Amino acid sequence: MKLFQRLGLHTLFFNTKDKRLATSIKMITGRKPLNLSLYRLALTPAGLGEETHKGFRISNERLEFLGDAVLGTVIAEYLFKKFPYRDEGFLTETRSKLVNRETLNEVGIKIGLKKTLEQVIDSRQFIGNKSLYGDILEAFLGAVYLDRGYHFTKKLISQRILIHMDLEEMISTVSNYKSKIIEWSQKESKQIEYKVLQINGNQRYKEFVVELTVNGDSVAQGKGPTKKKAEQEASKNACETLHITI
Amino acid sequence: MKLFQRLGLHTLFFNTKDKRLATSIKMITGRKPLNLSLYRLALTPAGLGEETHKGFRISNERLEFLGDAVLGTVIAEYLFKKFPYRDEGFLTETRSKLVNRETLNEVGIKIGLKKTLEQVIDSRQFIGNKSLYGDILEAFLGAVYLDRGYHFTKKLISQRILIHMDLEEMISTVSNYKSKIIEWSQKESKQIEYKVLQINGNQRYKEFVVELTVNGDSVAQGKGPTKKKAEQEASKNACETLHITI
């Protein structure tokens, strides 16, 4: 069966609609799909799929779960290698900004999922939710993963998805809480100070406890294995306490 | 360089300590490491790594971020294929139970990371946090991924990690909110009822709004593309309102 598909013989049985869909998918991934039904499933938004006799509604949500994980891993590796000197907090935050619903939605439309979806369903009949194309993008990546494997999906994401994401802008908005606090204190003419309250642990393993005071009053504390991290955490907590928006 | 490693020639330059560590790693992964320094980094808990002149502390936290993503993807695919008729809510919840800190910690010790860690650091000197071996396990998987690729890591997780996780038990505790509410109502002798308040959408796309009443009083509502999902969500909300613990 696998050989049959690899030779492209399964496309002989495609009807006109299938052929058009397969061509659309090739425009996005660069390769004709081996298992078209996976992609058709990815293009079935929740609430639009048919219900089976047991009340189980077939939709792309399960594929979305899978695609979300694959996308997360590829972006994790990308950021890991691109920023060798940034800590895991930065990596986590940058990734969550990259894969937020709004960005994914835009990327989904940009790579052509809207047009592909229109081939499968009559979109006038369908009131999609706001993150429709973001959801479909993730489900689509899940389908690509099952159809073509991890390596292929990783290449697809690196070459065709990441270029639509404005990494530089994302990073500039990744919150540096300490600088936010300093900025705020200058604007509000407040005196802030970071004090190391405690250093726990032994010679090798240390934990710093830092307190942040505003005009002498303690507003927040933070802990961490370095002074810098403890200060960052104290700043984050202070942003919450003082309702400073990032 | 790659060929040099594949031929195992790099091991000629290993000192005794390196050789012992490489053997330990082979016991876990089944293959000698190509890049030993990745594994050494994975075995460097946060707070124990050396600080560079710029205040950047080298630790396994970045690798942990990567390994967490890879583990999440492999488990996502495993659950996706194992449970073809369960929805994404079930898959998400089951995965998060499988990769919780406590489980990972146990698995980390079971596959031998404690012994391997003892070769690298003097553990008596080190007060690790509770999730030490879970963190190391994730970082270790990140190292394996960078060293040997996705396919190898996936096989490792399927064959040597998942067998230590008691999937059946996890699943039985995955919360079914509706059954919780029914159980609660019987214990407290309350009358509960699910009512469909609204059905929105058109012929193809539907949204159900369900209300849950207890002794005639509305306690929660839920929405969803099927009646079943809406009831499940209403039950979940009711659990929160009524402080029923899952």
What does the model show?
Chains A, B: It is found in: Cytoplasm. Chains A, B: Mg(2+) binds at residues 64, 135, 138. Chains A, B: It catalyses: Endonucleolytic cleavage to 5'-phosphomonoester. Chains A, B: Belongs to the ribonuclease III family. Chains A, B: The active site is at 68, 138. Two copies of one chain form a homodimer. Chain A is mainly α. The first copy, chain A, folds into two domains: 2-173, Ribonuclease iii, N-terminal Endonuclease Domain, Chain A (Orthogonal Bundle); 177-241, Double Stranded RNA Binding Domain, CATH 3.30.160.20. Chain A contains twelve helices and three strands. A three-stranded antiparallel β-sheet of chain A has the order 1-2-3. In chain A, a hairpin with a 2-residue loop joins strand 2 (206-214) and strand 3 (217-224). In chain A, helix 4 (61-82) crosses helix 5 (88-98), helix 4 crosses helix 9 and helix 8 runs antiparallel to helix 9 (150-161). Chain A is elongated and about 75 Å long. In chain A, 37% of the residues are buried. The mean pLDDT of chain A is 86.
Order of helices and strands of chain A: HHHHHHHHHHHEEEH
Give the spatial strand order of the biggest sheet of chain A.
Answer: 1-2-3
Structural class by sheet pairing and helices of chain A: mainly alpha
Assigned CATH class of the largest domain in chain A? Mainly Alpha
Mean pLDDT of chain A: 86
Strand elements of chain A, count: 3
Q: How would you name the CATH homologous superfamily of the largest domain in chain A?
A: Ribonuclease III domain
Number of helices in the DSSP assignment of chain A: 12
Question: Helicity range of the residues of chain A?
Answer: 55-70%
Number of domains of chain A: 2
The pair of chains with the biggest contact is: A-B, 45 and 44 residues
Strand content of chain A: 5-15%
Fold-level CATH name of the largest domain in chain A: Ribonuclease iii, N-terminal Endonuclease Domain, Chain A
In quaternary terms, these chains amount to homodimer
**Second CATH tier, the architecture of the largest domain in chain A:** Orthogonal Bundle
- Spatial shape of chain A: elongated
Largest sheet of chain A: 3 strands, antiparallel
Rg of chain A, alpha carbons: 24 Å
Weakly predicted, low-confidence segments of chain A? none
How far apart the termini of chain A lie comes to 54 Å
